[in-house]
Write a structure and sequence with these properties.
With about 55 residues, this protein is mainly α. The chain contains 2 helices and no strands.
């Protein structure tokens, strides 16, 4: 699906449904590359960084 302007909700809905069908025809399972602990640690570091002074 290319970026574009949709003149109606039905046109947008049809384009999305077509894209989903195409995507699902070649779907592959998602493979996690990090453990849950690694992901949570990264989120915690990010939260610490953005909650400090100046933010």
């Amino acid at each position: 699906m290319e970026r574009g302007v949709f003149c109606s909700l039905n046109e947008l809905k049809t384009a999305l449904e077509d894209w989903i069908k195409t995507w699902n025809d070649t779907a592959r399972p998602f493979t996690w590359t990090k453990t849950a602990d690694q992901i949570i640690d990264r989120i915690c570091r990010y939260c610490d960084r953005i909650s400090g002074p100046g933010h």
